[in-house]
Amino acid sequence: MDSTDDLAMPFLLMSAFRGLVDAVHAELEAAGYPDVRAAHGFAMQAIGRGCTGVELAERLGVSKQAAAKTAHALERMGLISRVQSPRDRRERLLAPTARGEDMLRRSAAAFGRQIKDWRTRVGDDHVSATLTTLAHATPGRRGPTDLSDWV
Amino acid sequence: MDSTDDLAMPFLLMSAFRGLVDAVHAELEAAGYPDVRAAHGFAMQAIGRGCTGVELAERLGVSKQAAAKTAHALERMGLISRVQSPRDRRERLLAPTARGEDMLRRSAAAFGRQIKDWRTRVGDDHVSATLTTLAHATPGRRGPTDLSDWV
DNA sequence: CAGAGGTAGACAACTAGGTTGACCATATAT
DNA sequence: ATATATGGTCAACCTAGTTGTCTACCTCTG
Known about the structure:
2 copies of one chain form a homodimer.
Chain A: H1 9-30, H2 38-47, E1 51-52, H3 53-60, H4 64-76, E2 80-84, E3 92-96, H5 98-122, H6 124-137
Antiparallel strand pairs in A: 1-3, 2-3
Helix pairs in contact in A: 1-5, 2-3, 2-4, 3-4, 5-6
The structure holds a DNA duplex.
């Protein structure tokens, strides 16, 4: 239809994403997690209940070296543990600590509150339409932030 | 309503954004603009018909040093010119070259085609709802990718 | 009109998050 | 037993940003 507005889509996507993430990180900072960045949150979500470094790299769609850096940062922040695997001595098993799980819970709650705000602002139907639109927008896409395996 | 899906929103936003941008950049690369990155496209949009470095920094929501770096990169790629202002000799006026305007046209066309894909895939109503949702999602937000001044 | 303070831009050093390439240690298959 | 594949690490580099400092220039005020 009115395809002139379409050009704003990338900006709106970016802006909405940043607004969402910034709001959540402000809440996390207030809750005692000052150094958590967006990449850390994504990585924690990707680790889920536990995985290896290579799996993390695949889930995030980055190189294993990049995943290792992030994992080390998360370990330094006390959010995950990295313990040697019993069945394969090359592997280090990444798993959230109690503090990491608390951070994930708070993060999820904060995201939920943000989207709830959206729902009251534009209505449930619009938010639902947005979810389905975005879900169908990038079919078969694999790579960064693809969580089809782990949600 | 079903707030469990809400947690996927940041991932969907990110994924949709990356899918969109990647597709457009693939087209641009094929059209003879191989080195254009997402930041360059945003900056070109922000420059519009012309502005100074400080204005660019404000429009992008970054430091003026970062904006200057980007502007130099755009100049090296032949997409903008940086000429001294006649009325203020401190200023350098940034303005797209013919090549830069061609790039912007191709970029806009590519974005339009991508969103048209979305429309045929999920329907005009869903895409429109997405646009209005995202537009209302971050009210009064200023900073990166805020284009209220220059669209 | 002289000088104070504000502004545009450049330069340098740093950070975060990513990349590739080379490498070692360990598993696994032949 | 040996060849090959895999998990992880280290090192060097890239991009896009940051803060701090500096100079050149404009503008406002006494």
